[in-house]
Amino acid sequence: MSNIIVSTDPKINGGINKINRLIQKNFKITKYIIISNDKPDKNIKFDNWIKCYGYKPIIIFNIFKFFDLISKNKNKNKNIILSDPQFSLISYFLIFINFFFKKKIFFLSHGFFFHNNSFNIIKKIYFKFIKYFFLNYFKIISISPNDSNILKKNKFFNYIEIFNGVEKIKSSKKKKYFFCLIARNVKSKNIKNYINFLYFLKKNNIKYNNLKSVLISDNINDLYISELKNLHVYSKLNDYRYKNILSRSKYIMSFSDYEGFGLSIIEGVGAGLIPICKQNSSFEIIFKDCKYLLFKKYNSKMLLKILIKIENMKKKDLKELFKKLNKIYLKFSINNMIKKYKLILN
Asked: CA-CA to 74 of 20 to 30 Å: which in 162, 202, 256, 298?
């Protein structure tokens, strides 16, 4: 059995792309097609890129090239794995193609299009429209507990749960970075709050100020970081460098209003980092047994209190925390994910 991946994520450190690469690594992939505005990062081992224009779900792309790539191999024993969370014209066109070739299409949810509260009413109406008329043309795979909740709330139950998995990263005993944040520089991720917190530590000469921190993002536009001498910034890291940074960090942070899953946080947990995150719909479920690691609204003083509480934990309490975090990692391990994909892709 061979597979085609169709994706809209061109970023090497993006969550969707990471899952695509794990599938690519563990299954026979005939083609990896990326349809995106930006050219895919050079470290991604993709086969074809189709440039698109517009704003999802309404985009323009070369449908003839897409049709040709999908239809070249007419082998019936072939799956299409689709990562198109905005349910754009790509999804509609795949339905059309499938009338001719009758392949199985697995739609990976990735948060659908509920990444923030903007245009929420329109999104709900659009979801109802695709639910009634189009979702049943796909094998829907919910990639996170949050996505399962979205589907249940919208009374759609014809789906398979295969939660995103992360590879185990060996934790280094020598920690170079105290804080680590991994996020795209978009409004919903609130990277500026991370920068503000580091400035707060610096301004008040709090002891953590002298420790090194790291930011992994696609760009640093509009981020005022010139005075943060201890902040190291990286982008477009290959797997080795990315894992190396995680393994040498102590805390992994998130200020995100919304996460379809929060892959980088779980990667951090798997590498032995302690998460301190904004309470959103995804993290509220994942960290339900250690909610003291979450904060509702960003406030530097409140964040510092959470940090001090963790730093002053007794050994037995800290050990218990790491037990809980390891249990979370095991639930979302790559082994669990691949085992379930094998049942449906082979």
From this structure: 162
Task: Say what the pTM is.
Answer: 0.87
**What pLDDT is attached to residue 101?**
78
CATH classification at residue 291 = 3.40.50.2000
237, 260 Cβ separation under 8 angstroms = no
In a domain, residue 338? The reply is no
Sign of CA dihedral 169, 329, 182, 213: negative
**Angle (nearest 5°) at CA 55 between 52 and 60:** 35
Place of tokens 């993006």: 14
Structural domain for 34, as ranges: 2-162
- Compute the radius of gyration of the chain from its Cα atoms: 21
Six-digit token string for 139:
């094998």
With bands split at pLDDT 50, 70 and 90, how would you rate the model's confidence at 207? confident
Structure tokens at 275: 């998460």
The count of structural domains within the chain is: 2
pLDDT at residue 2, rounded to an integer = 80
